[in-house]
Design a protein that fits this description.
mainly alpha, Arc Repressor Mutant, subunit A, 2 domains, two-stranded antiparallel ribbon, 7 helices, 5% strand
Length: 195
Protein backbone atom coordinates (compact mmCIF):
# COMPACT_ATOMS: atom_id res chain seq x y z
CA UNK A 1 0.00 0.00 0.00
CA UNK A 2 1.39 3.42 -0.91
CA UNK A 3 2.05 5.86 1.89
CA UNK A 4 4.63 7.46 4.11
CA UNK A 5 3.72 5.42 7.19
CA UNK A 6 1.57 6.45 10.13
CA UNK A 7 4.50 6.25 12.49
CA UNK A 8 5.80 9.43 10.84
CA UNK A 9 2.53 11.36 10.95
CA UNK A 10 3.56 13.85 13.62
CA UNK A 11 7.34 13.70 13.38
CA UNK A 12 9.37 16.84 12.76
CA UNK A 13 8.49 18.68 9.60
CA UNK A 14 6.52 21.68 8.34
CA UNK A 15 3.76 22.70 10.72
CA UNK A 16 0.27 23.50 9.40
CA UNK A 17 -0.43 27.19 8.97
CA UNK A 18 3.05 28.13 10.20
CA UNK A 19 2.20 26.89 13.69
CA UNK A 20 4.91 27.63 16.25
CA UNK A 21 7.05 24.74 17.46
CA UNK A 22 6.99 26.17 20.99
CA UNK A 23 4.30 23.65 21.87
CA UNK A 24 6.90 20.88 21.96
CA UNK A 25 10.05 22.83 22.64
CA UNK A 26 12.32 21.69 25.46
CA UNK A 27 12.51 23.88 28.54
CA UNK A 28 15.74 25.12 30.11
CA UNK A 29 15.92 22.00 32.31
CA UNK A 30 15.64 19.74 29.27
CA UNK A 31 12.05 18.69 29.94
CA UNK A 32 9.56 19.13 27.08
CA UNK A 33 6.68 21.55 27.47
CA UNK A 34 3.22 20.03 27.24
CA UNK A 35 1.86 20.53 23.73
CA UNK A 36 -1.52 22.24 23.44
CA UNK A 37 -4.44 20.32 21.99
CA UNK A 38 -4.73 22.83 19.15
CA UNK A 39 -1.10 22.21 18.23
CA UNK A 40 -1.50 18.42 18.42
CA UNK A 41 -4.66 18.43 16.30
CA UNK A 42 -2.93 20.65 13.76
CA UNK A 43 -0.01 18.26 13.48
CA UNK A 44 -2.30 15.24 13.20
CA UNK A 45 -4.35 16.99 10.51
CA UNK A 46 -1.17 17.80 8.63
CA UNK A 47 -0.04 14.18 8.86
CA UNK A 48 -3.40 12.76 7.83
CA UNK A 49 -3.52 14.94 4.74
CA UNK A 50 0.02 13.98 3.81
CA UNK A 51 -0.88 10.31 4.20
CA UNK A 52 -4.10 10.71 2.20
CA UNK A 53 -2.27 12.42 -0.65
CA UNK A 54 0.27 9.61 -0.76
CA UNK A 55 -2.35 6.87 -0.78
CA UNK A 56 -4.74 8.57 -3.21
CA UNK A 57 -1.94 9.05 -5.73
CA UNK A 58 -2.47 5.42 -6.78
CA UNK A 59 -5.80 6.52 -8.28
CA UNK A 60 -4.68 10.01 -9.33
CA UNK A 61 -7.11 11.60 -6.90
CA UNK A 62 -6.68 14.71 -4.80
CA UNK A 63 -8.12 14.88 -1.29
CA UNK A 64 -10.88 17.21 -2.49
CA UNK A 65 -11.74 14.89 -5.38
CA UNK A 66 -11.88 11.88 -3.07
CA UNK A 67 -14.08 13.81 -0.64
CA UNK A 68 -16.41 14.77 -3.48
CA UNK A 69 -16.72 11.16 -4.62
CA UNK A 70 -17.41 10.05 -1.05
CA UNK A 71 -20.12 12.66 -0.51
CA UNK A 72 -21.81 11.82 -3.82
CA UNK A 73 -21.71 8.14 -3.00
CA UNK A 74 -23.67 8.84 0.19
CA UNK A 75 -25.85 11.63 -1.24
CA UNK A 76 -26.29 11.27 -5.03
CA UNK A 77 -28.03 14.06 -6.90
CA UNK A 78 -26.66 17.00 -4.95
CA UNK A 79 -26.39 20.40 -6.60
CA UNK A 80 -23.05 22.19 -6.89
CA UNK A 81 -23.84 24.43 -3.91
CA UNK A 82 -25.00 21.54 -1.72
CA UNK A 83 -21.98 19.47 -2.64
CA UNK A 84 -19.60 22.36 -1.97
CA UNK A 85 -20.98 22.80 1.56
CA UNK A 86 -20.63 19.13 2.38
CA UNK A 87 -17.15 18.88 0.89
CA UNK A 88 -16.03 22.07 2.71
CA UNK A 89 -14.97 23.95 -0.43
CA UNK A 90 -16.27 27.04 -2.22
CA UNK A 91 -18.88 26.67 -4.99
CA UNK A 92 -16.32 27.90 -7.52
CA UNK A 93 -13.81 25.27 -6.43
CA UNK A 94 -16.50 22.59 -6.64
CA UNK A 95 -17.24 23.55 -10.24
CA UNK A 96 -13.59 22.89 -11.07
CA UNK A 97 -13.50 19.63 -9.10
CA UNK A 98 -16.62 18.30 -10.80
CA UNK A 99 -15.34 19.30 -14.23
CA UNK A 100 -12.17 17.24 -13.69
CA UNK A 101 -14.07 14.25 -12.34
CA UNK A 102 -16.55 14.47 -15.21
CA UNK A 103 -13.71 14.58 -17.75
CA UNK A 104 -12.39 11.35 -16.22
CA UNK A 105 -15.79 9.74 -16.46
CA UNK A 106 -16.12 9.38 -12.67
CA UNK A 107 -19.06 11.78 -12.29
CA UNK A 108 -22.01 12.71 -14.46
CA UNK A 109 -24.30 15.71 -14.16
CA UNK A 110 -27.88 16.16 -15.27
CA UNK A 111 -30.19 19.15 -15.43
CA UNK A 112 -32.69 19.39 -12.60
CA UNK A 113 -36.11 19.17 -14.30
CA UNK A 114 -37.58 21.60 -11.75
CA UNK A 115 -34.74 24.14 -11.96
CA UNK A 116 -33.02 24.03 -15.32
CA UNK A 117 -30.12 26.16 -14.10
CA UNK A 118 -29.21 23.57 -11.47
CA UNK A 119 -27.09 20.53 -12.31
CA UNK A 120 -27.38 17.40 -10.18
CA UNK A 121 -24.24 15.28 -9.83
CA UNK A 122 -23.90 11.56 -9.26
CA UNK A 123 -21.22 8.90 -9.57
CA UNK A 124 -20.80 6.84 -12.68
CA UNK A 125 -20.05 3.13 -12.51
CA UNK A 126 -16.39 4.02 -13.01
CA UNK A 127 -16.56 6.53 -10.15
CA UNK A 128 -18.06 3.95 -7.82
CA UNK A 129 -15.35 1.51 -8.83
CA UNK A 130 -12.51 3.95 -8.10
CA UNK A 131 -14.06 4.89 -4.76
CA UNK A 132 -14.45 1.23 -3.79
CA UNK A 133 -10.73 0.73 -4.35
CA UNK A 134 -9.61 3.93 -2.61
CA UNK A 135 -11.87 3.68 0.45
CA UNK A 136 -10.03 0.82 2.21
CA UNK A 137 -6.70 2.64 1.92
CA UNK A 138 -8.15 5.81 3.45
CA UNK A 139 -10.21 4.05 6.12
CA UNK A 140 -7.08 2.20 7.21
CA UNK A 141 -5.52 5.49 8.31
CA UNK A 142 -7.83 5.73 11.32
CA UNK A 143 -7.17 2.15 12.32
CA UNK A 144 -3.42 2.65 12.09
CA UNK A 145 -3.59 5.91 14.05
CA UNK A 146 -5.56 4.34 16.91
CA UNK A 147 -3.99 0.89 16.85
CA UNK A 148 -2.10 1.43 20.12
CA UNK A 149 -5.22 2.57 22.01
CA UNK A 150 -7.61 0.23 23.84
CA UNK A 151 -11.12 0.14 22.36
CA UNK A 152 -12.52 2.21 25.23
CA UNK A 153 -9.93 4.93 24.69
CA UNK A 154 -10.58 4.92 20.95
CA UNK A 155 -14.28 5.52 21.53
CA UNK A 156 -13.53 8.32 23.99
CA UNK A 157 -11.13 9.93 21.55
CA UNK A 158 -13.66 9.86 18.73
CA UNK A 159 -16.42 11.22 20.98
CA UNK A 160 -14.19 14.02 22.20
CA UNK A 161 -13.09 15.04 18.71
CA UNK A 162 -16.69 14.90 17.47
CA UNK A 163 -17.76 17.22 20.29
CA UNK A 164 -14.94 19.62 19.44
CA UNK A 165 -15.87 19.54 15.77
CA UNK A 166 -19.49 20.41 16.55
CA UNK A 167 -18.41 23.25 18.84
CA UNK A 168 -16.24 24.76 16.10
CA UNK A 169 -18.97 24.33 13.49
CA UNK A 170 -21.13 26.74 15.48
CA UNK A 171 -18.59 29.51 14.97
CA UNK A 172 -18.79 32.35 12.46
CA UNK A 173 -15.82 31.18 10.40
CA UNK A 174 -14.11 34.56 10.81
CA UNK A 175 -12.06 33.81 13.90
CA UNK A 176 -14.59 35.13 16.39
CA UNK A 177 -15.91 33.04 19.25
CA UNK A 178 -18.92 30.83 18.44
CA UNK A 179 -21.21 32.98 20.58
CA UNK A 180 -20.31 36.24 18.83
CA UNK A 181 -22.95 35.95 16.13
CA UNK A 182 -25.69 35.09 18.58
CA UNK A 183 -24.61 37.86 20.93
CA UNK A 184 -24.60 40.36 18.07
CA UNK A 185 -28.16 39.41 17.12
CA UNK A 186 -29.29 39.71 20.72
CA UNK A 187 -27.61 43.09 21.14
CA UNK A 188 -29.09 44.31 17.89
CA UNK A 189 -32.54 43.23 18.92
CA UNK A 190 -32.29 45.13 22.20
CA UNK A 191 -31.01 48.23 20.45
CA UNK A 192 -34.01 48.49 18.10
CA UNK A 193 -36.63 51.02 19.20
CA UNK A 194 -40.05 49.58 19.85
CA UNK A 195 -42.72 50.39 17.31
Amino acid sequence: MPGVGLSRLVEHGPTPGGCSLQGVAASSDGQPHEASLVYIVGRVDHGIRREMRARLAAWSLSIREYTTLSVLNARPGLSNAQLARRALVTPQSMIEILAKLEDRGLVKRRVDPSHRLILRAELTAAGKGVLAKADPAIHAIQEEMLAALPIRDREATIRGMTTAMKALSEGTGDGRAPTTRRARRTTGAKARPSS
